[in-house]
Amino acid sequence: MATAVQENPLTKGLERLPVHPTTLVIFGATGDLAHRKLLPALYNLAHEGALPERFNLIGFSRSEHEHEDYKAMARESIERFSRRSPKPEVLDALLEHVKYIPGNFDDAAGYEQLSKQIEAFDEQAGVTFNRVFYLSTAPEFFPVIVQALGEHKLNRHKDAEVRVVIEKPFGTDLESARELNRIVLRSFREQQVFRIDHYLGKETVQNMMAFRFANAMFEPVWNRNYIDHVQITAAEDIGIGTRAGYYDHAGALRDLVQNHILQLLTLLCMEPPVSFTADEVRDEKVKVLHAIQPPRAEDVAEIAVRGQYTSGVVGGEQVRGYLEEDGVPADSRTETYVALRLKVSNWRWAGVPIYLRTGKCLARKVTEIAVTLKPVPHLAFQQEGSVGVQPNQLVLTVQPNEGVSLSLGAKIPGATMRIRPVNMEFQYGTSFMSESPEAYERLILDAMRGEATLFTRNDEVDALWSIIDPILKGWASQDGGPLPQYEAGSQGPEEADRLVEGGAHWRAL
Ligand code: BG6
Fold it and tell me: Could you read off the pLDDT of 82-114 as tens digits, one per residue?
């Protein structure tokens, strides 16, 4: 008798949702993102039985390859980067429906071939597949590709859903993002567009909504009456690797704050949505962004600090300074660290400082949101020695050691009333006993399902850049002024300390 597969009771509720048959086209199919993230994510979806039962993949890139070469490349990427070691039968079945089309992104012939291949898949299977176009190319090709899809009538189909997924960066400033939105919306309706921010695909980021809106105990204190300040940190211990070409034009503000960190801020600060539909959630997020007063040029120096790493030791290893990295100009003034003090000016948050920071080559990798409550109004046992009394702090850790921790004041055993903080912890690993899916697995699946909650809407992109743009302009006008430096492996530039008001400090990395 076959033994029944025992279900892990803690993963009850993890669902499989039906997805319409889909043909996914990846533009930039031989690029780094496709190899490291997209192809392994597709494998893991297949492994879980979460991909549509009928699924085709078309890789589209500039380099010449045969279908079979591309399949071999895809197999290698999956074997190397998948979070699970692949099962041969699942991998073979996935690769069976893979094709490759070489073509320049502005060349009509490639799109004609693409169109034929998509139709051939439909005819062979006798079904009209939904189409998802995933733009994972260098950003200068985003407008070229969406325009070409429109010109070749690949942007709509009378019997199928057609969607386009656009990677980051979406524009390099407010103006270019608006222009890109205009071009995209000439070929596609907003409901067809899925702008990626992979942080929204992280389980722990989505947990912020569950945490706030599935528990009655936090909302009553989630406001200016109880919260003293908030710190959002996205620290990295790695440098820029081989990405100087991109990074030196971007810098930390564009690379991480404009998208990932501000997304964390919106989820932390938004009002409870009426429902979890894409537009209800995104409406609330946009309202938060609108409540952040973009700084005036003259205030930028007061609310923003940037820095650049010099050589140092990270995780026991000697690393080079930013200016010595391959491909970085010797006089580059690109920031590899940024810290900001923002205010959300609405009834809930008025007056609460929200500190944001990110940087490369810092002491350790950690992404967390720390909410510090105000001190208790009166300490009755002051005389007895209450040295250890600290305000409560709630820390939502996005990565690593994913979880939530709440610090509470507790009495130290003994005859006197001495207090010290203790932590109440929830950890993902121990509570669910299963590895979280990678952000891209969730996002690819959502795009195929047409579920847009975890993607950035056009007005949201506009609102995000409206906050960042004045800072970029303020910095540009200060060029020539000193650029703070910090040693690789450190806590970041000392100058960032002055942003933090009212006797608070940055949390140690
Ligand atoms: C990317 C940035 O969007 O996010 C990178 O371009 C950064 O510079 C990365 O390293 C961080 O992502 P994660 O998921 O490792 O926190």
Answer: 999 999 999 999 999 999 999 999 999 999 999
Give residue 376 CA to ligand 1 midpoint distance, Å: 38
Task: Verify whether ligand 1 is closer than 6 Å to residue 460 (CB atom).
Answer: no
Please report the DSSP string for 317-332 in residue order.
EEE--GGGSTT--TT-
Measured from the CA of 243, which atom of ligand 1 is nearest? 8
Q: Is 368 in the pocket of ligand 1 (CB under 6 A)?
A: no
Alpha-carbon dihedral 480, 173, 269, 496, rounded to 10 degrees: -10
Q: How many CB atoms lie within 10 A of CB 123?
A: 9
To 5 degrees, how large is the angle CA 328–CA 141–CA 440? 85
260 is an active site residue: yes
Q: In 132-241, where does DSSP find H-type helix?
A: 141-151, 174-187, 203-213
From the CB of 203, is ligand 1 less than 6 Å away? no
Are residues 113 and 101 in contact, defined by beta-carbon separation less than 8 angstroms?
yes
CA distance 219 to 212: 6
Taking alpha carbons only, the member of 398, 366, 357, 380 closest to residue 484 is 357
* Residue of 67, 260, 290, 505 marked catalytic: 260
What does the pLDDT look like over 178-229, one tens digit per residue? 999 999 999 999 999 999 999 999 988 999 999 999 999 999 999 999 999 9
| pTM exceeds 0.85, yes or no | yes
